[in-house]
Each structure stands twice: as structure tokens, then as C-alpha cells.
Amino acid sequence: MTATMENEYEAGIAIPPGETILEAMLARGIPAGAFGDDPQEAVDILRGMYPITSEYAQKFADLTDLPVDFIMNLERDYVETLKRLGEERPK
Predict the structure, then answer these.
(1) What distance in Å separates the CA atoms of residue 52 and residue 57, rounded to the nearest whole number?
(2) 8, 16, 70, 84: least CB-packed within 10 angstroms?
(3) Which regions in the chain score pLDDT beneath 50?
């Protein structure tokens, strides 16, 4: 019989997915202003003020080589943690 282990860790803070994305950008020497159309919107999304859409996930993936599904999972985990902690996105 094989026992399965579940990850029971629950973060005590909600970390915006943009922190991980920005780390990947910095590691590759990509400036924060590397977003084409609307750099301020991209920065606000990275700060967690707005959800990461599939369109932005693709843009971030193209810049950082992080997989799109990884970026979307970061967003999902952020939203779930905010809900669990009874918090809202920063404004």
C-alpha cells in the first residue's frame, strides 16, 4: 500500500505573482519597462492590483521563459490565499 502525502502548507501572507515574475525578469536583465503597450498597466498587474489574464500571462512568459500555466497558477494561488485570509487586492 502506498501512502500519499498532501501539501498542507498554507501561507500566512498573499504574495502577488508579480514578485516571482519580476525576479525572473531581473535574473534575465529585463527592465521593468519592457512592456510594450501599457507599461503602467503591466506594473499594476505585477503588483497584484489586477488579475493576470491569459493575454498578460503570455506576454510575461515571452519575456521570462516562465511557462504560461506556471504564471496562471501563481495568480490562482494568490487569489485563493487572499480569499482564505479575508483580504482584497491592493488598490
Answers:
(1) 6
(2) 8
(3) none
